[in-house]
Automatic annotation (TrEMBL):
N-terminal signal peptide: none
Cell inner membrane found in the keyword field: no
UniProt site positions, description: Cleavage (non-hydrolytic): 208-209
Residues carrying Pyruvic acid (Ser): 209
UniProt organism field: Parerythrobacter lacustris
Gene that encodes it: psd
Record function comment: Catalyzes the formation of phosphatidylethanolamine (PtdEtn) from phosphatidylserine (PtdSer).
Name of the protein this chain belongs to: Phosphatidylserine decarboxylase proenzyme
Amino acid sequence: MAGEILDNRGRGDASWNWPSIHPEGRKFGIIALAISLFFLLIMDWEIVGWPLLGLTAFVFAFFRDPERVVPQGDDVIVAPADGLVSLIAQVEPPRELVGDDGLGSAGLTPLPVTRVSIFMSVFDVHINRAPISGTVKRLIYMPGKFMNADLDKASEENERQHILIERHDGLLIGFTQIAGLVARRIVPFVKPGDILAAGQRVGLIRFGSRVDVYLPTGTDSAVLLGQKVVAGETVLARIGTQKLIEGVAQ
């Protein structure tokens, strides 16, 4: 299915498949499996082996990497992460993404923009994806704390990684991968200079975390606070569209 065109008139071929396990997680799953089999088959300690076998299944599930059908369109910004929209606020972008980088590459303006925060629980897919197509202009890692990623101040105090993507027409989108209470490592799949397609995999955060997206000036969120979004599939915003959207929790 990867790379295949599908549309709303039935073009393409879709079928359900077991999601693959990302290579980054296979080693953890194999280690957990080996330990659980050791206790089950060698030590005959079922009281330890069976829970460890359950943990093995969880590890493999955590690193699942399903295919996604990415909406296409010049005005579309897709969600970079699976999870819950936990915060929507008007804020100034991180200083690491603002202004010239010293090498002649422009960054975001320091004016307040809409920030959409997506909280990923340990049960969500943790592969993060590019919100737009373009070139990676900055990738900046920042050490920090490991507070609850659901807190607003996690954007400035937690361990995090900023990514800035420039579209072919010069439009810039910045987003930040933020570690949380359990997360202890942010793993990038890209580097500055890489050319990405919208929805392309850019990295992962191990075991629960958050992603902040800084929308362009004049663009409001197309998702609601409390909504569940899907990386690479949910339309997070449409560039240049400002519209109040309301929903009812029920």
